[in-house]
Amino acid sequence: MTFAARLVERAQRLGRRIALPEGGDPRVAEAAGILADRGVAEPVLVGADPARGTAGHGDGEPLSPLQRAVAMLKVGAVDGVVAGAVHTSADVIRAGLKGIGLRPGVRTLSSSFFMEVPGFRGGGPEVLTFTDAGVVPAPRPRQLAAIASEAVRVRRLVVGDEPRVAFLSYSTRGSAGGRSVEQVREGLERFRELCPGVVADGELQGDAALVPEVARVKCPGSPVAGGANVLVFPSLDAANIAYKLVQRLAGATALGPILQGLRAPVNDLSRGASVGDIVHVAAITALMAADRARRPPG
Known about the structure:
Blueprint: H1 3-11, E1 17-20, H2 26-38, E2 42-45, H3 65-74, E3 80-83, H4 89-99, E4 110-117, E5 126-131, H5 141-158, E6 164-168, H6 179-194, E7 199-204, H7 206-210, H8 212-218, E8 230-232, H9 236-249, E9 253-260, E10 266-268, H10 275-294
Helix pairs in contact: 1-10, 2-10, 3-4, 5-6
């Protein structure tokens, strides 16, 4: 069973209501039908007007469909919001921050992509977390640590395995220097303070993070040892370029950007999202909503 199929199966048990404020887009309308027919979630189309569509409804327009969907989430009328097929990421992020805000203790909104990639470590397909590929352009060390911490939390909810975190760089364990390398090292140290029980290492080049044979040569004794499943990129440039290259050249399935740090789940889509992408991000949103329901209010 693929990762996407497992998401659907798990979401079917939860019965969550997911608002879709772009129902005038044919992809969203079709996805809503699939969500309902398969019992993945109860879709709530907000402001759907086939004659007018939702293009041009930025989050700044009073009572726009996106704002109304987030307002419904705030009062508990729905469990999550999925948008971005028409709206820009900036629209979706602003609506989430304005309407819901960050969870207590969270200072940085960030995002992750879940990348289902063909087997490359001697087994079947794997799911990797790429973070942050959608929000923070040039994260400082404190932000890198916070981004990684949120990525760990969301991965446990969505994938259900134990995160192994690699802080990526053009250097492996001192093989090169520079300001960027220093920031990655500091980010790792701060992350270890936030998440002392999580396996993590850095700074690592991509091959040392992902290939055990390379790790044995470049970073012997690394706790990650070439087995990373959470990749923390030093910048938005690096992460966004990497996810699109892996998606297009390796045939990976890319789901996201999944927004991290909000009080309730508001998730983004690429404007090139397929019907399947919308269904699967809605399933992820349902899983995140189930976690919110277990947490005390705050």
